[in-house]
């Protein structure tokens, strides 16, 4: 299998890496996190100018029509900068869900504004009792007189408070854990009956809890056929999972580089501590975990578009298990090798560690994906 990047892909990688180095310094990020919003509209506009927000939108809808490999390269760079802007939630998850579930008119109306950075989408799907189960939806959608009335509670909505457009899932029929019967709706955040509770996560990102109380939307706000949204939701989350793993790889690489540099410069007993064999072994193990995670992120970029959902889910669960374990190992070793200062906010290592910890738990932890891998393997045998 050829993993050589094209000239265009290398140029994309260089462009985004240069942007992170020049415009997203550690000090700049700290200032952004300290702001009320927790992210920067100015830098969001810069990402739009670079064309990155339209990476996953088709060319006919104002995007670049790129693929998962290009997304992987961008997420590698954003992971190095531990970027706080809603790229994963809007430019990946939201864009893909709109592409997969919407009709031509809905894609034509919304994808160009997402690609241009004029609007931000957030997917309100996960719920308090779901625990990573995408099919478990308790929020109800009742049809009445050409409208739908939505009632329920959504949790862990990535950048929910920043959204100009919410993609809300609700059950129009079936049991709470049935794959059939789930519908998707385009909802404006200022629609009467919506309450958005914004909060910061341990890694500085923003999430929201969204409560829907008799939220009325027209039937034209429904994405796709009634009760048939699960396949699109599942596939969009798989695309986002592949992107998340690529972000983790970028963060791990930055963490590894910073740790190796620290071992070279920190002196003890009259010599750099990097000369101690025990510490060299630990750094070597960090490198091994990083390289394995990197290879698996390539695998995710290749398999996330697979139309065979069982094989796609099995592959991506294997990737998340490997990447999740690497996040845990690389993060802990980097902090320990830095000593107590590795946990201070003044050092970027602690911020990398927090982001890797959050990534390990996002879209399913290691145990969850081991179970999914086993289930998918049984289903395919």
Task: Describe it.
The structure is a single chain. With 381 residues, this protein is an alpha+beta fold. The chain has three domains: 7-118, Butyryl-Coa Dehydrogenase, subunit A, domain 1, CATH 1.10.540.10; 122-227, Butyryl-CoA Dehydrogenase, subunit A, domain 2; 231-380, Butyryl-CoA Dehydrogenase, subunit A, domain 3 (Up-down Bundle), CATH 1.20.140. It is built from eleven helices and ten strands. The protein has helices at 7-23, 26-34, 41-49, 68-80, 87-101, 104-115, 230-265, 277-303, 309-338, 348-361, 366-380; strands spanning 121-124, 140-144, 147-158, 165-171, 182-187, 194-200, 206-218, 222-223, 267-268, 271-272. It has a four-stranded mixed sheet with strand order 1-4-5-8, covered by helices on one side. A hairpin with a 2-residue loop joins strand 2 and strand 3 (147-158). 46% of the residues are buried. The model has no long low-confidence stretch (mean pLDDT 96).
């Amino acid at each position: 299998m050829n993993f050589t990047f094209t000239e265009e892909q290398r140029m994309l990688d260089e462009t985004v890496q240069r942007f992170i180095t020049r415009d997203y310094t550690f000090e700049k990020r700290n200032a952004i996190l300290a702001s009320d919003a927790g992210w920067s509209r100015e830098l969001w506009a810069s990402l739009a100018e670079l064309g990155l927000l339209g990476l996953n939108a088709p060319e006919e809808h104002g995007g670049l029509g790129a693929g998962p490999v290009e997304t992987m390269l961008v997420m590698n760079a954003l992971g190095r900068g531990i970027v706080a802007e809603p790229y994963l939630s809007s430019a990946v998850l939201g864009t893909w869900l709109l592409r997969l579930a919407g009709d031509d008119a809905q894609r034509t109306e919304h994808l160009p504004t997402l690609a241009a950075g004029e609007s931000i989408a957030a997917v309100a799907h996960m719920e308090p009792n779901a625990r990573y189960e995408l099919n478990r939806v308790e929020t109800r959608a009742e049809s009445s007189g050409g409208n739908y009335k939505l009632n329920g509670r959504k949790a862990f909505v990535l950048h929910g408070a920043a959204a100009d457009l919410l993609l809300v899932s609700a059950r129009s029929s079936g049991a709470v854990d049935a794959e059939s019967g789930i519908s998707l709706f385009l909802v404006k955040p200022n629609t009467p009956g919506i309450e958005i509770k914004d909060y910061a996560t341990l890694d500085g990102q923003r999430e929201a809890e969204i409560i829907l109380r008799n939220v009325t939307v027209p039937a034209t706000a429904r994405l796709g056929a009634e009760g048939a949204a699960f396949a699109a939701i599942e596939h969009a989350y798989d695309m986002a999972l592949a992107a998340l793993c690529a972000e983790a790889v970028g963060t791990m690489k930055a963490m590894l580089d910073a740790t190796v540099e620290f071992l070279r410069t920190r002196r003890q007993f009259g010599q750099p501590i990097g000369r101690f064999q025990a510490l060299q072994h630990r750094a070597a193990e960090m490198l091994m975990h990083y390289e394995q995670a990197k290879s698996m992120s390539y695998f995710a970029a290749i398999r996330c578009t697979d139309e065979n959902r069982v094989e796609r889910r099995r592959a991506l669960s294997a990737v998340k298990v490997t990447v999740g374990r690497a996040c845990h190992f690389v993060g802990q070793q980097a902090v320990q090798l830095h000593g107590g200062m590795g946990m201070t906010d003044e050092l970027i290592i602690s911020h990398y560690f927090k982001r890797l910890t959050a990534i390990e738990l996002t879209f399913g932890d290691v145990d969850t994906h081991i179970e999914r891998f086993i289930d998918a393997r049984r289903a395919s045998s």
